[in-house]
Design brief:
This protein is an alpha/beta fold. Helix content is 44%, strand content 16%.
Length: 264
Amino acid sequence: MARFSLDCCCYYYAWVGRYRQISLSALSLRWLCMKKRLFLFDIDGTLIFAGGCPRIYFSRIFMELFQQDLRFIAKDFLGRTDSFIIRQALKKLGYSNRPDLEALIVRRFIALMNDEFIHCPDSTLVPGVREFLEWCNTQEDLYLGLITGNLRPSAYIKLEKFGLDAYFESGGFGDDSIERNELSRLAVQRAEKLYDAVFFPEDVYVFGDTPHDVACAHAWNYQCVGVASTESRVRPLLESQPQWIIRDYNDSGLIDFLNGASAN
């Protein structure tokens, strides 16, 4: 009996904003039709609470280098990339367009994170996160990634402390771009290359705790799950209108929402 082989060419409008041509065999056509989801996670306030140590490290560095006590506070960090924070701090001190100083601060910060963050006393997990990530690992055609303002080395230092680093093989990081919206695009690109997959916008979910996370999802028509992990995050998240909001990963409606959304 002759073997039937389907070969064809088709076009789809990729999330990068251009038409992409692909050749399809019967097997690859079946692969394309299977729904593949990508969950992208912010880190601070979404997966873990890093505590005050990273802000203290930045303050120490600026005191050592410039004899200036900038007193970094939590709101300076919410939803921002580390590259943005460093650049803005230097600008306050009169140093604009100084990539040499930015690189020096990054090196000092990563060294401190590597040496001292493991001992940070007030860092902890967002409740239910480990169990949720384990559930994700049991789901067929579901992939995980990061979208974080952390520099890549410090992102994995934070996750490694809690044994979460193994869940995430790629992502978009604060040393990739100063603009958070750009990180979501990079995170999807890298995941597509790593997993040899295609992720359509409606199948990409960004998990984050600030309006900046919601904005970077909506900029590319991705879905967003707001994580209102502290009381102060509830109203800003509500106003930014993510598709779903949870207090933590013990939320009984989260998996129903994700499964319902993926079925539509």
